[in-house]
Amino acid sequence: MKERLNSTLQAQPLPASGRIGSGVWYVETLADRDITVDAGGDVRMLIVDGDAAAEINIDVESGAKLSILHVVNHKSAATVNIAIAEVSECRMTQVVCSSSDTRVVASLVGRDARFELGGVFVLTDDNQTSVTADVNHISPDCRSRIMVKGVASGKSHGRFSGLVYVAPDAQRTDSEQTNRNVTIGEGHIETLPQLEIYADDVKCSHGATVGQMDSEAILYMRQRGLSLADAKRLQIEGFVDDIVLHSAVEGVQDILTEMLAEKLSKL
Amino acid sequence: MLKVENLHASVGDKEILKGINLTVKAGEVHAIMGPNGSGKSTLASVLAGNEKFTVTAGSVEFEGEDLLQYNIEERSRKGLFLGFQYPVEIPGVTMANFMKIAVNEQRKARGLEPLTAAEYLRMMKEKSAIVELDSKLTSRAVNEGFSGGEKKKNEIFQMAMLDPKLAILDETDSGLDIDALRIVATGVTRLKREDNATVVITHYQRLLDYIVPDYVHVLYKGRIIYTGDKTLALKLEKEGYDWLINDYKEE
Question: How far apart, in whole angstroms, are the C-alpha atoms of residue B69 and residue B89?
Fold first, then answer.
């Protein structure tokens, strides 16, 4: 998995600390990092977890662009802290398929900074998984978009927690946080969306849902000859696919789809 | 092809079908009409195998086999198609992907090899032309954002793709403007052969201007109370159901 992603993207190993300005980088083994993306830089980064706990700190300097693909398929605890300076942008895609504790904390520290996270977690069997996505709007005129989708089947347990914090100075913040979940059988998902707003001129929306599969759609597909298992799989694929199709790091959608399909076959 | 005898079915403890008798032979077109709430859609759902309904008595034979022993997908693979009154939207699932699995399930049931990608594309193109369905729609999610007319055309497109022995079309004409109605009806007529059959459930006579039925049945309170030829539909359109229902009440 890791090798395929790295070789497809021709990624180079990320140093333990230092500055980078361009290119595609991967975190070789999950260990602490302190990285700065140079002003005006354009960097793509691949984080594929191992069985470890680590904290990755990234400073995105002004006018830079950072795209991160974070794949979690081990028992890991990773925290990614991203500070995003003025007129810079960070897009992140997160695919979680294992028992793990993943945290992303994005701080919009400069004016006109942007952060976007598309995440999906698919849990089966006895997976115990926590996904946290916090956004700190420190400066005015920043924009954040969080979309996390969860699926839990078997006896798995998932938890989404997301805080959108808007500092008193962060006027004209534009923030959306969405968490949509589907549980199957005894799967369980807990969702904890939170807003903490200290500025008065802001646009912040959040929504969280936990639902079952759409039985009408399943019936419709079965009437056309699909087995119950195929109908369920297709529906869940349809639910999570857009996250992968809009991956922040392009060119590896096939690999991600394959990984998800393998996980979905265990639903 | 289809032989329904004394079929009773309930949802919860409410009996909706109270003894349906219906025989459909290959090459025939049957229309089932009747006032709202008479059980038309229930009959379609029960025949298709919707588990929401429980069959409490009677039998259904399809191509010489007991149909009721099979679940909904098995019935589909045996050649039974239900055109839904309200086609379901399935976000994220493309028509092309969905139909490919469906077509290959049908082929597997008939002992045929799966289609190659090229064969499948050719088939989609050819079949979508039958109902003048914009071929762009096949790359979109199933029924998502389709207009009412497109959804109904899409039902007939799927029927064309799956080539069923028996198609039951549940109010396929409802909510269609006259152009869409003509296109849908023409599609159904073009798919008609000597070895397949169609049951059209409809409220209105106007569909039967395009799809000419061999028999017209009137369903009322869970029973077929009257069967006639195509002229019955015209009479119903003009005179309503009262004369029939009154007759039936007197019986």
Answer: 29
